[in-house]
Design brief:
Elements: H1 5-13, E1 19-21, H2 36-44, H3 53-62, E2 66-67, E3 77-84, E4 94-100, E5 106-109, H4 111-114, H5 124-130, E6 136-142, E7 144-145, E8 148-149, E9 151-153, E10 172-175, E11 180-183, E12 188-191, H6 194-208, E13 214-216, H7 224-235
Parallel strand pairs: 10-13
Antiparallel strand pairs: 1-9, 2-6, 3-4, 3-6, 4-5, 7-8, 10-11, 11-12
Protein name: Peptidase C51 domain-containing protein
């Protein structure tokens, strides 16, 4: 029997950390230019208001909320932090909210944007250029700010198996009459060996206690797999 387990574990996990939104920030509230932390705190009704963005960063970092990289989560709102190292605002820092869609396009919102001083930033370089005179230094992205956790990894509250049954609710094997397909709720791929179906079912059952559903769509007068694929493609646009 061929060992496909490593390949299909990646299919189940998605190849990267997946996050869910816990708090949706009200990004469209008004703001005063220069009051970046007040804007971000107001969008989430933060109960613990730090004096400035640098202190808010230090607290979030101590909590383990900050990641000093640009491997941003997708399709959720999260927090960005910078330090200010030049001028009268040295040591006060800067904070913003950001969102990255499935295609990797980013939008960044801060008090400059929502005071009407400028448009939405679409890259880290753009916001760094805007604040070029402040000695901006990117510190990292955070799952929360001032006591409010905006996002969480989807497996943080899971049981010992690392997945909840609900996370697999769209997974299935499809018999389309010409072969077998695996669908994970987002993508569809052909199965070319019977052992692939076995290993998928083994992983699914280990996580849910049930066999993976098999959809019999072999009647080609109603090509349900093709219709499902059109829906999936539409969601990716």
């Amino acid at each position: 029997m061929k060992d496909y387990s490593a390949h299909y574990i990646l299919l189940f996990k998605g190849g990267e950390m997946s996050y869910k939104q816990l708090i949706y920030p009200n990004i469209n509230i008004g703001a005063t230019a220069g009051w970046c932390l007040k804007y971000v705190d107001d969008t989430v009704n933060a109960p613990q208001r730090s004096v400035n963005a640098q202190i808010a960063y230090n607290i979030a970092n101590t909590k383990g909320w900050v990641k000093a990289d640009t491997a941003f989560p997708k399709n959720v709102w999260f927090v960005l932090f910078w330090s200010i190292n030049r001028g009268p605002n040295t040591g006060q820092g800067h904070v913003a909210l950001a969102y990255v869609n499935s295609n990797g396009a980013i939008q960044i919102h801060d008090s400059e944007v929502h005071s009407g001083s400028r448009g939405i930033y679409t890259s880290l370089a753009e916001i760094s250029n805007w604040f070029a005179n402040f000695g901006f230094q990117y510190l990292g992205w955070s799952i929360g700010v001032d006591g409010v956790q905006l996002i969480a990894g989807k497996d943080e509250s899971n049981d010992d198996n690392g997945k909840k049954e609900g996370d697999f609710k769209m997974y299935c094997i499809i018999n389309n009459g010409t072969g077998l397909l695996f669908f994970n709720g987002q993508n569809m791929t052909s199965l070319t060996d019977p052992d692939e179906m076995k290993v998928l079912n083994t992983i699914y059952k280990a996580n849910t206690g049930k066999d993976i559903p098999i959809m019999d769509w072999s009647n080609r007068s109603a090509p349900w797999d093709a219709r499902l694929q059109r829906v999936v493609n539409g969601l990716k646009k």
